[in-house]
Each structure stands twice: as structure tokens, then as C-alpha cells.
Write a structure and sequence with these properties.
Elements (H helix, E strand, L loop, with lengths): L1 H67 L7 H12 L4 E7 L5 E4 L18 E2 L5 E6 L6 E7 L5 E7 L10 H4 L2 E7 L4 E5 L10 E7 L5 E8 H4 L7 H9 L1 H12 L4 H11 L3 E10 L5 E11 L5 E2 L5 H7 L2 H22 L4 E6 L1 H4 L4 H11 L7 E5 L8 H13 L3 E7 L9 H4 L3 E4 L1 H6 L4 H16 L3 E4 L5 H9 L4 E3 L9 H13 L7 H7 L1
Parallel strand pairs: 12-14, 14-15, 15-16, 16-17, 17-18, 18-19
Antiparallel strand pairs: 1-2, 1-6, 3-4, 4-5, 5-6, 7-8, 7-10, 9-10, 11-12, 11-19, 12-13
Helix pairs in contact: 1-5, 1-15, 9-18, 17-18
């Protein structure tokens, strides 16, 4: 009887526990799915806003260029030069010279004035954060355009008229595309552009996600039918329920591990002490000749048992715990040792390393880098410091001073993840880097989305105006190479030529390509392979 009662109590506890964890799992799974949906919609909103900011940055850079070259007047020669400038920049429809009150004095293409339905006064234009640019809507018969005004002096200003292409907003996933709309508007509520499949059909009970630009007076809104959201990306529900039902078993394990909160950080410290972090090398190549011009150092954690831990599993913790600096110096020293013969034999070969903003701005960074490179008897002009944008550069002036000091010593500086990181295009010139690296996000979509091509062309044009080179990341297909070359990109990296490789395989790749006549052969490759 006692045993039977104990079994009944145990069964009741198991049933109660299962019911409790099941209920908790339901709420947790539902909350997780809603959170994921909100995050993805916020990311999509951010993409549209960034694309719009790129367009304004592009217009501002064009106006600064024209003003700097003395073309802010109505002389025939100046207007001809402005027309050529507009012709070379497809995103800009017209450039106009205006009075301080905003009234038009002259236009590069005067016939475009006939398409205007109205023109706003200066008082109705919206100022950007830096008070140097003003945005306003230009009502036209063929669709609204965006006006970007830059003051030249107290008597005149230049205005760029940007066409608002609806394809810029065509970013919604297939399952939401017919049940959503994407809008871009100014902060005064005036709509600049939108993407919606059926403009005559109102969305029933929509959910809105909105984000405003921190630099310009405009905002993006994504509106989605609430009923469609209830079935979008719900595949995680049942796996989450399974996890919830197993939490009872896992709780003891998790509790034991929770007593040692520093466990993962301690693992990093032990790995650093044992030199378990190894540099892998991914080629950077010429898009036309496929010659390998350099490589980027990428971290891999190779444990004592031979297993390799991917960077996404330890880099964020290394950054948040402050271990990233020691890891960066170790990887650089090891990479310089591994590739020293090749670097000394081929003085045009470049070695790139990633540096987070906090490390770049740390005390003694430049001197430590210089000492490390000189100790390896390698030229400083062969080292490229890639400033990653996972964290924002809080002090741009200080960062620019560090970059200037690096360049004085011969180092090259690149800005990584351009287009999706924290810095806007207007900050590229202020930092004073040599190179921008176009993020893989744009390479993935350049053959699928016409708006991506426009953005890449803008980046290449701005880089050329700022005397910078451009490298595209994540190239995997020949089709992407052709599209990037058509936009003016000359160098890239990606699996098309080589994945991140350990030193032996990377040297083998260099030797194999030299034997095939790809790139410039050097006497080192043979020595290294041997």
C-alpha cells in the first residue's frame, strides 16, 4: 500500500511537472516567436532606412563635390559640368541652384521643372542632425522625389533631386509580401515612397513597425497584417515545446554550471595560455585576373582534441570580456611568423587583421602594432588594419587621429562591414581610411535586387571621390563577380577563390595558383610549400 501510494504520488508529481513545463513552454515558445518576428521586422526596417540614408549621403557628397569645384552658378560651362555630374550618377535626377528662401534660380535640366507640381519654401524644409542639410518632398506628376539642400553661402544653395525608386523598398519575405507595405516618409508625415502589391486594398488590422533616422528627418514604417504574423516563422514552436518538457532533466545540469559563472571566460583564458587560437587565411583577389593580392586573418579556436570552434562561438565573448586584444596580438604574431617568407619576397602582398574600435582607441595600440610588425622584419605598408563596426566609434576625432598616425607609419586602414555597420557614409571621409569593404549582405543580393546594384554603385563612386579602394566580401559565384565589376569593384574575397584556410593549405593554394599562372609567381611560394 505504501509503495502504491508512493508511486501514485510520483506519477502525480510527474504529471503536474509535465503540465507546468508544458504551459511554461507554450508561453515561452509564443513569446520567442513574437520576439523573433519583431526583431526580423526591425531589421528589415533598418535595411530600408539605411538604403535611404545612403541615397542622401550620396546626394550630399555630390553637392559638396560640385560646390568645391566652383560649379555653384548658372554659367553655361558650370551647368554643362553639372549635367555631366548628374549623368554619371543615375540616382540623381537634377541639380538646382536656389535662393536662400528656396526659390529656384536655375537647373541643370530645366525641363524637369515642368514636371514639378509644387515647390516648398525654405521654411517648410526639414533640417538634418548636423543642420547642414535640409530635406523636403518634391511633388512631381510622375511621382514624388526627394530634395536635398546644401547651403553654399548666405546667398545661394544647391539642391539635388533624388528619384525615389519603389524597388528600394521591395524587401519583404515572400510569405509577407502580399500582406504588407513598406513606407518611407519625412518626419512631418509627407510620404516619399512605398512598396505595396495592391495599392487599392487596405490591410486589415495591421501591425506597424517604425524606425526614425538618427541623422536625417525621415522614418521608415513596415505595416503587416496581424493575421499573417500568427503563422509566420512559427516552425520553432514544437522544438521549443520539446525543450520545455526536457527542462526538468536539464535543470540540474544548468544549476551545476551556473555556480561557475566565469566558466566560458576561464575557458578563453586557458585557450590563450595554450595558444589554441590559430590564424586562418582567406585570400583577397583581383576580380579580373583572380590573382591573390593579399589575405585576411580570421580566428579559429583549435582545441587540444583537434576540434575547431567557429568564431561566432567565442568572438562575442572575447569582445565583451576584454580578451579580444590579447587574442588579436597573438593571431598577428603567429600570422607574421607563418607568412614572413612570402611577405618579404612579395612586397605587394597585403595582410589584413580585424581590430574592434575599443582596441583601436586603446593606449599604446599604434606603438604595439608597429613594434610587432618591425620585429617580424615585415614592411608596415603590407599590413592592413580593418576596423570592424560591430561596436560604434564613440570618438570619431580620436579615431581619425589614430588612423592618421597609422598611415604616417605606412600602415593601411580599411573600414569593414560598410553598409550594415554603425557608421554612416558621411563619416568615411572623416575617418581617413584607405579602403572600404562592402558587406556580404550586398554581395548576396547584387544579382537578385536592382536596388543593391544602385547602392554598390553609390559606394564605389563615393570611394573613388574619397580616393579609397573597394573590396567586396563573401563572393561565391561568377555571376556576382561580373555584377561587382560592372559596378566598378576591383577586388574581393570569398569562397569563389578560397575559404579561410590554415597556413599550410593557404600556402598550398598560393603555390597552386602560381603554377597555373594566376597572379605573379614568387620564389617564396616554393620554399613555403617545401
Amino acid at each position: 500500500m505504501t509503495l502504491r501510494r508512493a508511486n501514485l504520488v510520483l506519477a502525480a508529481l510527474v504529471l503536474a511537472s509535465t503540465a507546468a513545463f508544458g504551459l511554461a513552454g507554450h508561453f515561452a515558445a509564443t513569446s520567442f516567436i513574437r520576439h523573433q518576428q519583431a526583431r526580423q521586422l526591425a531589421e528589415l526596417t533598418e535595411v530600408v532606412l539605411r538604403r535611404s540614408e545612403f541615397a542622401v549621403d550620396f546626394a550630399a557628397a555630390s553637392l559638396d563635390d560640385l560646390a568645391g569645384r566652383g560649379f555653384a552658378n548658372c554659367e553655361p560651362a558650370a551647368l554643362q559640368a553639372v549635367r555631366l555630374h548628374v549623368y554619371q550618377r543615375s540616382a540623381i535626377k537634377d541639380v538646382r541652384l536656389v535662393n536662400p528662401d528656396g526659390s529656384v534660380i536655375c537647373s541643370a535640366y530645366s525641363e524637369t521643372l515642368e514636371f514639378d507640381k509644387g515647390w516648398v519654401d525654405r521654411a517648410d524644409m526639414l533640417a538634418s542632425r548636423d543642420k547642414k542639410l535640409f530635406l523636403f518632398r518634391v511633388e512631381q506628376f510622375g511621382g514624388d522625389a526627394l530634395g536635398v539642400l546644401r547651403d553654399i553661402d548666405a546667398k545661394k544653395a544647391l539642391v539635388a533631386i533624388l528619384g525615389v525608386n519603389a524597388s528600394l523598398f521591395d524587401i519583404m519575405p515572400a510569405e509577407l509580401r502580399a500582406h504588407s507595405e513598406v513606407l518611407l516618409s519625412l518626419n512631418n508625415g509627407e510620404k516619399l515612397g512605398e512598396f505595396v502589391l495592391d495599392a487599392d486594398k487596405a490591410l486589415p488590422f495591421p501591425t506597424d513597425v517604425e524606425k526614425s533616422s538618427a541623422r536625417y528627418p525621415m522614418r521608415t514604417t513596415i505595416r503587416v497584417e496581424r493575421a499573417v504574423l500568427s503563422t509566420w516563422n512559427t516552425e520553432a514552436y514544437w522544438p521549443a515545446m520539446a525543450v520545455a518538457l526536457g527542462l526538468g532533466v536539464l535543470f540540474g545540469v544548468l544549476s551545476a554550471r551556473s555556480r561557475r559563472m566565469e566558466g566560458p571566460v576561464a575557458d578563453l583564458d586557458r585557450a590563450l595560455a595554450r595558444h589554441e587560437f590559430k590564424p586562418y587565411f582567406q585570400p583577397i583577389f583581383d576580380l579580373e585576373t583572380r590573382a591573390i593580392k593579399g589575405c585576411e586573418i580570421l580566428a579559429r579556436w583549435q582545441r587540444e582534441d583537434g576540434s575547431v570552434v567557429p568564431p561566432m562561438n567565442f568572438i562575442p565573448l572575447a569582445e565583451s570580456s576584454g580578451r579580444i586584444q590579447a587574442m588579436t596580438w597573438h593571431l598577428l604574431e603567429r600570422a607574421l611568423s607563418d607568412l614572413r617568407p612570402h611577405l618579404r619576397a612579395n612586397k605587394d602582398f597585403k595582410l589584413s587583421l580585424n581590430v574592434v574600435p575599443k582596441h583601436l582607441l586603446s593606449a599604446g595600440f599604434v606603438e604595439t602594432l608597429r613594434r610587432t610588425v618591425l620585429s617580424a622584419r615585415v614592411s608596415t605598408r603590407q599590413i592592413v588594419v580593418e576596423v570592424t563596426e560591430r561596436d560604434e566609434l564613440d570618438d570619431l576625432a580620436r579615431a581619425a587621429a589614430v588612423v592618421a598616425e597609422l598611415r604616417d607609419y605606412g600602415f593601411r586602414v580599411a573600414i569593414d562591414d560598410v553598409g550594415v555597420g554603425h557608421s554612416g557614409l558621411s563619416r568615411l571621409k572623416g575617418l581617413g581610411a584607405n579602403t572600404i569593404k562592402i558587406d556580404k549582405f550586398f554581395v548576396d543580393t547584387i544579382t537578385l535586387d536592382a536596388s543593391t546594384t544602385t547602392i554598390v554603385e553609390m559606394l564605389v563612386t563615393l570611394a573613388r571621390d574619397l580616393h579609397m579602394t573597394v573590396v567586396a566580401e563573401g563572393i561565391e559565384t561568377e555571376e556576382q563577380v561580373r555584377a561587382l565589376m560592372a559596378c566598378g569593384v576591383q577586388e574581393g574575397q570569398g569562397y569563389l577563390v578560397g575559404a579561410p584556410l590554415p597556413v599550410a593549405k593557404f600556402i598550398e593554394l598560393l603555390g597552386a595558383r602560381c603554377n597555373k599562372g594566376v597572379g605573379k609567381p614568387g620564389p617564396v611560394s616554393t620554399a613555403l610549400v617545401a
